[in-house]
């Protein structure tokens, strides 16, 4: 989506440029889903952050091979990584990630949106899993369902 695609300054815009012109383009260069095209003024900061995180996670997963799953690394902490198994928000300003760490210990990160930093990482899928789990698809599907409800 470019600024010419969205002439209304109150509506969200997204754009990205990559050093390699052949690189797979991020969601910023594709048409945004209906839910993400609504004015941020109609949403809480937490909901707005949540919706955009879904788009980033879904796009990241689209680039993964069948043997890897999305996880997030923690910035400025020695807590390691969290395999993303769920994401939510609590209006007006909290985003939470549900998952497990590299050892399989249940983990939850609760973050104020003013402190939100997310590093998406690819972790090998768990050996006992036949297929890598894709949370981004389920999140995007739910986002579209909320938009139609």
Numbering strands along the chain, what is their spatial order in the largest sheet? 4-3-2-1-5
Shape: globular
Mean pLDDT figure: 79
Q: What composes the largest sheet?
A: 5 strands, antiparallel
| Poorly predicted parts | none
- Helix content bin: 10-25%
Rounded to the nearest angstrom, the radius of gyration is 16 Å
Structural class computed from helices and strand pairing: alpha+beta
Strand content: 15-25%
Write down the secondary-structure element order.
HHEEEEEH
* Total count of helical runs of at least 4 residues: 3
- For the secondary structure, the number of strands is 5
Intertermini distance: 25 Å
Characterise this structure.
The chain is an alpha+beta fold and 149 residues long. The chain is 24% helix and 24% strand. The protein has three helices and five strands; from the N terminus they run H-H-E-E-E-E-E-H. It has a five-stranded antiparallel sheet, covered by helices on one side. The radius of gyration is 16 Å and the shape is globular. The mean pLDDT is 79.
Notable characteristics:
single chain; 149 residues
Topology, please?
Layout: H1 34-37, H2 45-62, E1 68-73, E2 81-90, E3 94-100, E4 106-112, E5 119-124, H3 135-148
Antiparallel strand pairs: 1-2, 1-5, 2-3, 3-4
Condensed summary:
With 149 residues, this protein is α+β, with helices and mostly antiparallel strands. Helix content is 24%, strand content 24%. Strands 4-3-2-1-5 form a five-stranded antiparallel beta sheet, with helices on one face.
């Amino acid at each position: 989506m470019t600024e010419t695609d969205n002439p209304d300054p109150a509506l969200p815009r997204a754009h990205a440029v990559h050093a390699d012109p052949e690189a797979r383009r991020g969601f910023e260069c594709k048409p945004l889903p209906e839910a993400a095209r609504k004015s941020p003024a109609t949403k809480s900061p937490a909901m707005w952050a949540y919706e955009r995180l879904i788009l980033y996670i879904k796009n990241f997963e689209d680039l993964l091979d069948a043997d890897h799953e999305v996880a997030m690394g923690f910035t400025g902490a020695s807590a390691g990584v969290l395999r993303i198994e769920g994401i939510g928000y609590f209006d007006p300003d909290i985003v939470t990630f549900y998952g497990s760490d590299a050892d399989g210990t249940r983990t939850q990160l609760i973050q104020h949106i003013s402190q939100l930093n997310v590093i998406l990482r690819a972790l090998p899928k768990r050996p006992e899993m036949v297929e890598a789990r894709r949370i981004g698809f389920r999140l995007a599907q739910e986002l579209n369902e909320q938009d139609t409800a």
